[in-house]
């Protein structure tokens, strides 16, 4: 479970079920561990529909590699997960392997909480730098040291209901959504869909609610499209371009005001509305794919629309890290790298969950290209808008939550774009002024 | 009338046996195990926490440098600290008044009802037995949702109970009152049952009305209970966290975030354990001040009464 910041009922239930499942099958206690097996302890936060895919991959690895036993532990996504990693890593008795959001790398105190990746062992397992998307590979480093192995990018995408869009005449002869460019075309598209839906808002996204980060995701995608940045490269100066930031916010307010998006939906409601055909469009991360397919929603998906310039989309990346251990067993370490290599090389299986593989060969594999609609938005990988690399960014970070809070009332129309931007800037300035809990000299 | 209530007979002074006071006495032996636990799990962590609040320590125990009162200086200049402290005070005032008043009203109602009393007792006390997570999900998912929630659905209103910054705090108070009033209700009910019946009989013979009895017998005799309830309630409300964390996460726009959640946010999400300790000690100081003020207030009142 990586996308939604708030714990919705579905995710809470899904997570608990996954945990129960793990307990019931004895994953938490290594009952399956044979005497000749090497045990790899693996923590991850994939508890939603992509968690099912991860579990299948772990089992497939077990079948292929009987000498390694992977003990899978599913933990709750978000702030609590990173608290646990920090505490486990600092104690030096952490799991052998953990999933991680790349954007949080700068904030976790890599070097103290995380151990560097052993590049030799990685190559021995069959992975090398050239296999990965260069900007993402770059992100996995801190001060030139590799701390993470990238797995995927999970950008904002556009889900569309093929029935509703077909009736509104928005599909091309190939049954795919006709692309839009710029504000006017987007508004025209939404207006047509609204007419077909009897005047109901055609677009849903996570706009409101407990710890919502949806407004941040949408704004950062739009703002990045117009070329805006948040911080200077060294993270010491706010570089927000007011005109561009306001342009994006005004558009978000317009969508709410003109009834083109439903500003009263929280994360769960926005997904539910789209699932039930009560919204023609959903702006969200790519991870809802499996769930929507299971519920037989007539949908497809494509890249987030290019509205204010480029086709950039807000994104973060899943990766693997080695939380700090005081003494790492060389045999377990080798097994860990073999497991990572297995997962990365089978990225096409992982893409079933909706994510775009960071492993370049996977992007060319026929299995991946045959995946529909997952391969439709793969080109976004070169245009992802990633967080600035400072300690308070990344999934479920303070930055996301504070910007979400600042912009949510702008969509609802109770706060002017100017006030929303001022609130966000104030939050950013505060975060910048607060001391880094893991300063550089600690590394 | 209170004077007539006082027990007329005071025990004649009995010569007390000489008690030797000192560390070696066996009283100390009995107290020592408890004292040990008290020191190990309360006094020592309290001191340790204070020491942490003077450092820049992070959640991993690293970056542990002595920074003096820097954290406090930062906290006092931090608008979000003030906002959350203010929210805590607002919540305490808004929740304590109805919680004490309604507890009394419900207890009086139930005490005077003569049929299926157990049902009323259960009804008022029931919610208190629910865990905070259950209460939060109940209100979050069934009662407050704007589209299909119980309140908007029944009243035909269109209020964003948890999404509107000017309403959210009131919603949290409403939920809290529903959930916790049962405890005060129970204390009041017990106190009511311990008032001797003959006082009411005597008053009835003197021709007192129901209102007279309430004003002159019941309420004065509930004074001590009220004092206790107010103290317990104020401290409980100052420490509010669960339901707000689970239902609004402190939002919208920081309008409900209590100071404990702020300490949690900076400590566990922001990894700054030292700063979080400083924020916690500010709340600690507030609770000590409120408790001392109340003690003084009630002691004075008791002195006046006696």
Fold topology:
The complex is a heterodimer of chains A (443) and B (306).
Chain A: H1 9-24, E1 38-44, H2 49-64, E2 68-74, H3 79-91, E3 97-101, E4 114-115, H4 119-124, H5 134-139, E5 141-142, E6 145-146, E7 149-150, E8 152-161, H6 162-167, H7 182-196, E9 203-204, H8 214-225, H9 242-257, H10 267-275, E10 281-285, H11 289-294, E11 299-303, E12 313-316, E13 318-323, H12 330-345, H13 347-350, E14 356-357, H14 360-364, H15 366-369, E15 384-385, H16 398-412, H17 417-433
Parallel strand pairs in A: 1-2, 1-3, 9-10, 12-15
Antiparallel strand pairs in A: 3-13, 4-13, 5-6, 7-13, 8-10, 8-11, 8-12, 8-14
Helix pairs in contact in A: 8-9, 8-16, 9-16, 9-17, 16-17
Chain B: H1 2-5, H2 26-53, H3 70-76, H4 79-112, H5 117-125, H6 132-143, H7 150-155, H8 168-193, H9 197-205, H10 210-221, H11 223-238, H12 242-247, H13 259-269, H14 273-305
Helix pairs in contact in B: 2-14, 3-14, 4-8, 4-11, 4-13, 8-11, 11-14, 13-14
Domain ABC transmembrane type-1 (chain B): 85-294
Membrane topology (chain B): Multi-pass membrane protein
Main location (chain B): membrane
Explain this structure:
Chain A: It comes from Nonomuraea gerenzanensis. Chain A: InterPro entries: Bact_solute-bd_prot1, SBP, TAT_signal. Chain A: Keywords: Sugar transport, Transport. Chain A: Pfam families: SBP_bac_8 (PF13416). Chain A: This is Putative sugar transporter sugar binding protein. Chain B: Belongs to the binding-protein-dependent transport system permease family. The complex is a heterodimer of chains A (443) and B (306). Chain A is of the alpha/beta class and 443 residues long. Chain A folds into 2 domains: 38-151 and 317-376, Periplasmic binding protein-like II (D-Maltodextrin-Binding Protein, domain 2), CATH 3.40.190; 155-315 and 382-442, 3-Layer(aba) Sandwich (D-Maltodextrin-Binding Protein, domain 2). Chain A is built from 17 helices and 15 strands. Chain A has helices at residues 9-24, 49-64, 79-91, 119-124, 134-139, 162-167, 182-196, 214-225, 242-257, 267-275, 289-294, 330-345, 347-350, 360-364, 366-369, 398-412, 417-433; strands at 38-44, 68-74, 97-101, 114-115, 141-142, 145-146, 149-150, 152-161, 203-204, 281-285, 299-303, 313-316, 318-323, 356-357, 384-385. In chain A, the strands form 3 sheets. In chain A, strands 8, 9, 10, 11, 12, 14 and 15 form a 7-stranded mixed β-sheet that branches. In chain A, strands 1, 2, 3, 4, 7 and 13 form a 6-stranded mixed β-sheet that branches. A two-stranded antiparallel ribbon of chain A has the order 5-6. Residues 1-15 and 17-31 of chain A have low confidence and may be disordered. The two termini of chain B are 13 Å apart. Chain B has a single domain (71-301), classed as MetI-like fold (Orthogonal Bundle). Residues 1-10 of chain B have low confidence and may be disordered. Chain B is mainly α and 306 residues long. In chain B, helix 4 runs parallel beside helix 8 (168-193), helix 4 packs across helix 13 and helix 11 runs antiparallel to helix 14. Chain B has 14 helices and no strands. Chain B is globular and about 75 Å long. In chain B, 70% of the residues lie in helices and 0% in strands. Chain A binds chain B through residues 6, 9, 79-80, 82-83, 86-87, 89-90, 107, 109, 112-113, 208-212, 264, 269, 392, 396-398, 401, 405, 408-409, 412, 414, 423, 430, 434-435, 437-439, 442, and chain B through 56, 58-63, 74, 78, 80, 137, 140-141, 146-147, 160, 162-165, 247-249, 251-254, 265, 268-273, 275.
